[in-house]
Design brief:
Blueprint lengths: L25 H6 L5 H4 L13 E6 L3 H10 L4 E12 L3 E4 L6 H9 L3 E2 L2 E4 L3 H8 L2 H17 L4 E5 L11 H24 L3 E6 L21 H5 L4 E5 L16 H14 L5 E6 L1 E5 L5 E4 L3 H7 L5 E3 L4 E8 L2 E7 L2 H13 L4 E5 L8 H10 L1
Parallel strand pairs: 1-2, 1-15, 2-4, 2-5, 5-6, 6-7, 7-8, 8-9, 9-15
Antiparallel strand pairs: 2-3, 10-11, 10-14, 12-13, 13-14
Length: 377
């Protein structure tokens, strides 16, 4: 899930639950994964050249910084997903602040970046499972999704449905039902989006195996059947972060060994060229329950304010520091440019289409030269 920073209106962190391309011809495939954009007039096709291997999420609460970062690094960014829409019930679409802002869309398209807004869902597992079981309600949701895609002539949609994976009561049988039914909805949505000349991406929580084990105590991550979803979607974005999250003990946001297991499972269950590895541009400051999130580009400043220096944890491949304020000990872990670069290399080695960054504007600026060196040599 993609968590918001504690300060309302500030930039965001991200993480599950509490956020394509053929490698033989990556530039063409990433520009139009469905092969239908030219006839629809929807897609902003990329000029010829190396693949733009980075997708970015643009949170509405930090849009100015997110857009500025995206445009400054447009040579690397193929797709931008503004966090703009939520859907509740079968067809009630809720616009987030700034949804469909013409100036944002125009700026992205002027830089040949595909505009693929993120759509979240607001229902819990039980309500969503009821919807999944009813063909009429699924059809209504699909119609609503296509309506969003057409409303601003978007290039496609990113289906980031996470609330239905939250299962605090451990009703595993219900989670099993949702897991079996969710791919049908995604297949119907993707088919309709493709028919309308749009691409279809799905964002999923991280998995490290086939077992039906609750992640972080309450997340039924097996509701995401990677094999089934990858068979119908153009792109699957795996949120490889929040192994340590606000409600739990302090630790690395995306421990390197754990990230390797996430990558290995994704590569085993999906065509690698359809997968993007989600990277975090944030961290957490633990001093109680829950922790507060902090953008990666603000973490070094926080450390300096308290007279300490971030240190690199080699086992976790992540940065950390601790400080004391008003008698309370704080422990911070965050994904620095170095940490994200290491994870991007894992994705590249696995043959993935690229990475997806949560969130643009929160990253350390030095991340971009690392990515440029990785993808352009």
């Amino acid at each position: 899930m993609h968590p918001v920073h504690a300060a309302a209106g500030a930039s965001s962190g991200a993480g599950p639950a509490d956020h394509v391309a053929s490698r033989t011809s990556p530039a063409a495939a990433r520009a139009d994964p469905t092969g239908t954009a030219a006839s629809s007039g929807a897609a902003s096709v990329h000029p010829a050249g190396p693949a733009r291997a980075v997708s970015v999420w643009l949170p509405y609460w930090n849009m100015s910084a997110a857009l500025r970062s995206t445009l400054a690094n447009a040579s690397l960014v193929g797709t931008a997903s503004p966090f703009w829409y939520a859907i509740a019930g079968a067809a009630r679409v809720e616009d987030d602040p700034g949804a469909g802002e013409a100036s944002v869309i125009e700026a992205l398209r002027a830089h040949h970046i595909r505009v693929v807004p993120t759509v979240t869902e607001d229902d819990g597992m039980r309500e969503f499972d009821r919807l999944l079981a009813r063909p009429g309600q699924r059809a209504a949701m699909v119609d609503a999704l296509v309506g969003i895609a057409r409303s601003r002539n978007y290039d496609g949609l990113d289906l980031d449905f996470e609330n239905f994976a939250v299962d605090s009561h451990h009703d595993a049988a219900l989670a099993d039902e949702a897991a079996a039914r969710f791919p049908t909805l995604v297949a119907e949505a993707c088919a309709a989006l493709h028919a309308a000349g749009r691409s279809c991406a799905v964002t999923v929580m991280p998995r490290t195996g086939d077992t039906h084990t609750y992640w972080r105590g309450r997340l039924a991550t097996w509701v995401y059947d990677y094999r089934a979803l990858a068979s119908v979607a153009d792109r699957v974005q795996v949120m490889a972060y929040d192994e340590h999250a606000p409600e739990g003990p302090a630790g690395a946001v995306a421990p390197y060994a754990w990230t390797r297991r996430v990558v290995a499972y994704a590569a085993m269950t999906m065509p690698p060229a359809k997968v993007e590895l989600g990277l975090a541009a944030y961290g957490y400051d633990w001093q109680g329950d829950p922790a507060s999130s902090i953008p990666s580009n603000e973490a070094p400043q926080l450390a300096a304010q308290h007279g300490v220096s971030p240190r690199w944890s080699a086992p976790a491949a992540e940065n950390t520091f601790a400080y004391t304020e008003e008698g309370r000990r704080h422990v911070v872990w965050y994904e620095s440019a170095r940490a994200d670069g290491a994870r991007a290399r894992l994705a590249e080695a696995a043959g993935f289409a690229g990475i997806a960054l949560w969130a643009a504007g929160d990253e350390e600026p030095s991340l971009w030269p690392r990515l440029r060196a990785l993808y352009f040599g």
